Amino acid sequence: MSNNIRRVKTSDLDLKDRLVAINRVTKVTKGGRTFSFSAIVVVGDGNGIVGYGLGKANEVTTAISKGVDDAKKNLIRIPIHKGTIPHEQKAKFGGARVLLIPASTGTGVKAGGAMRAVLESVGVTDVLAKSQGSSNPHNLVKATFKALLELRDPLTVAQYRGVSLDKVFNG
Q1: Distances (CA, A) of 122 to 12, 17, 18
Q2: Alpha-carbon 128 to chain mean position
Q3: Cβ(127)–Cβ(112) under 8 Å?
Q4: Model-level pTM?
Q5: Residue 59: DSSP 8-state
Q6: What is the Cα–Cα distance from 123 to 156, expressed in whole angstroms?
Q7: How many Å apart are CA 88 and CA 126, to the nearest integer?
Q8: Taking the CB of residue 136, how many other CB atoms lie within 10 A of it?
Q9: C-alpha dihedral over 127, 149, 156, 161, to 10 degrees?
Q10: Facing residues of 81 across strands?
């Protein structure tokens, strides 16, 4: 289902950005060490639209703003059903593996670090998430996005199977 990417236009969206991780990178030259910064940022409207971006610059604020600009270019729409995800989903990117499980109302976002930033930016209020394998923030964000992209809403499932929407729920 990942070939069916749901792109979104950035016009008239109220996007909020979250800094996931910042990394100081050192380059050793003949004149000494040169420091630069790498930032991974997640932006979302809290209503199913989210994107992530990477920014690199010699200053932290510039790296973050570049990351935000990059994230706004890569927005996608995620199906949310009553504040949670429609179904359980696993995904892997690099060494990071993620497991997303829908939760009942009032559970909250049970996720750590990079996954929490992505899920809260999407607008998911109740979900159980488990990070397995690598804890690298870059790979965790990408694995979480991969899992979110593979989610299907009930209407899409009904159209794919060629049945009515109530048959999807009642079997």
Answers
A1: 17, 11, 11
A2: 15
A3: no
A4: 0.86
A5: S
A6: 20
A7: 13
A8: 16
A9: -100
A10: 84
Between CA 147 and CA 131 the distance in angstroms is: 12
User: For each successive 10 residues of the chain (171 residues), what is the average pLDDT?
Assistant: 56 82 93 94 92 95 95 90 89 94 91 90 92 92 93 79 74 61
Amino acid type, 96: A
Angle between helices 137-149 and 113-122 (to 10 degrees): 40
Runs of H (alpha helix) within 31-164: 60-72, 113-122, 137-149, 154-161
Q: Which two structure tokens, joined as six digits, stand for 132?
A: 């397995």
Buried b (16+ CB within 10 A) or exposed e, 43-68: bbbbebbbbbbebebeeeeebbbbbb
Q: Two tokens at 159?
A: 């159209």
Give the full edge-to-edge strand order of the sheet including 32-44.
Answer: 16-29, 32-44, 49-57, 76-77
The amino acid sitting at 27 is K
Tokens 């890569």, residue located:
74
The answer to whether 17 and 1 are in contact (CB under 8 A) is no
